[in-house]
Design a protein that fits this description.
The chain has helices spanning 3-27, 63-77; strands at residues 34-38, 54-58. The protein is α+β, with helices and mostly antiparallel strands. Strands 1-2 form a two-stranded antiparallel ribbon. The longest helix is centred in the N-terminal third of the chain and has 25 residues, at 3-27.
């Protein structure tokens, strides 16, 4: 996989995430889980590279889970 392939992957996933984030915030007011599925365009990558489709899930976190995530993040930072 070339550096250009990696740049193309990151660009495509960034675009998919932004589209999903806009839907999550704008249409669903951060209350409903959304799922974005991205299929890579094989023509934009080095021949012979197989890139699996990806699923990006964006969902609100329950308050109880949020407290656990804060603790986990603090432990990772320290």
């Amino acid at each position: 996989m070339t550096k250009k392939d990696i740049e193309n992957i990151l660009s495509a996933l960034g675009e998919a995430f932004i589209a999903g984030g806009c839907s999550f915030v704008g249409q669903n007011k951060m209350q409903k889980t959304i799922e974005v599925v991205h299929v890579f365009d094989k023509d934009k990558f080095t021949p012979g590279i197989h890139l699996p489709s990806v699923r990006i899930i964006i969902e609100p976190i329950k308050e109880d889970d949020e407290k656990n995530l804060i603790n986990i993040n603090q432990n990772l930072i320290n």
